[in-house]
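Sequence only, no structure available. Ideas?
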Amino acid sequence: MESGTPLKVYQSPSYEIYGLSKNPFAELASEGITDVESIHVYQEIDMKLSMALSEVVGNKSSVAFSIVGPLGMGKTQRLKSLAKAINDNGGKAIYVKVDTNDILKITRDIFNSFKPPKSKTGIFLENLSKKLGFVDQLEKMLTSTDEYKSRDVAELLTKEMGKHPYSALLLDELENMMSAREDEKIQFFEMLRHFISNMPPGCIFAFACIPEAYEDYSKIFPAFFMRLHYEFKLRPMSLEEAFELVKKRLNRVRIRDTDDPIYPFTEKAIELIHTLGKGNPRQILRLLHYVLSEASKHKFDPIDEYVVTTILEEPKSLEEYFARVPEDYRDLVKVIVEKFGGGPISYIQVAKELKKPGVQVYDHLEELIRLGFLVGDPKGNYKVPDYVRKFLEKGQGEKEEE
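Reply:
I predicted one. C-alpha cells follow.
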C-alpha cells in the first residue's frame, strides 16, 4: 500500500473481502440494535447499577442517582437497560429524552407516559380526566411557569408511580435544559427534590447528563444533589475493552470463519484507533466504521496501523475535504461551510436553507458525524472539524490581504 493513496470517491463498499456481511460499526450501541446486551462491553458501573436494581426489586427500596459522562460514553444505553429491567419485572418505567429547555414540556412528557395506549382506531381512550384523576389539576399547573407548583407536581408523580409494584423515572440528556432560565431550573429541580424525598417503594430515579451540565446544576440547586444516593461517573474505555468491543461487533456479521477474532484489523490498528478515540466508545465506533468502510473500497488486507493512518490522514485542502465527503451528503457540508462559516449550526437551519425535510437532514448530518466529516457539540449542533476551520481561517486571511 502506498502512503499517498488518494481517498476521493465515495461508493457503497462490499465487506465480503473480509468475510463480513456488513459493517458492524455503523450502529451505535443504543440505536437500532435489538440484542444490544450481546455486544455491550461491561464496566464497573454496570455492576453497581445491577446492585442498585437488585436492591430495589429485591427489597422494595427506592434509590436516586446520576450517570455522568461526556457524549458517547453509554449513558443512554444504561438508562434504557434499567427501563427494560423494571418493565420485565412487571413495573412501569418512564424514560424521557430531554429535548428542550422548557420545563413545562419536560414535565408534560413525563406525565404523558401514564396515558393509555392508542386504540385500534388510533383514538385515545375517552374520559382521560376521570380515569387519570391528576389530568385536570396537572394541566392547570402546566399552563405557565407561574402556575407550576413544584411540590404539587411531585406529589402527583409520586401517586402515579406508587400504583405500580416497581417504577422508574429516567431522564436522559438533561444537559439540554441548561439554557432555561435559572428560576425555571430551580422550579424543576425543586419538583425532583420533593419526588426523591417521597418516592414510593420499589422506585428508581435516575438522570444522565454531561459533566459540564452536572456542575452547573449542582451549583444552582445543591439541595437536590444532596438527595442523590449515588453519583456514577463513566470512565473512558480501556484498550482491553476496545478489543472486546471489536470482537463482539465483528462476530455478529461474520460469514466466513477466522482464527483471528479481530480480523481484518491488527492489534496495532485497534490500539491506534483507541488512542485517537480517546477511549470514548462512540468515537471509537465511528472511527472503526469509517476505517473499515474506506479500507474495503481499496481492498486493504489486513487493516494495520499504516492503513488506519493513511485513511485518517487529514485532507490538505478544502477542495480535498469536499471531494472525500459522500456525494449524497456534499450539499449539506457545503452549505454549512459556505453559508454558515463552518458552524455550529442546527439541523433545522440546514434543512430550511436547503429546503429539505428536517428528519432526512438530521439523519444525514448524524451519518456525516459517524463518518468523521462533521462533529457535534453538547447542544446538538453540527460543525466542521478543527482542521477544516483552519482552511476557512486561512482563506479568510488571504482575502483580507488582497
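The chain has a mean pLDDT of 85.
Hope that gets you unstuck.
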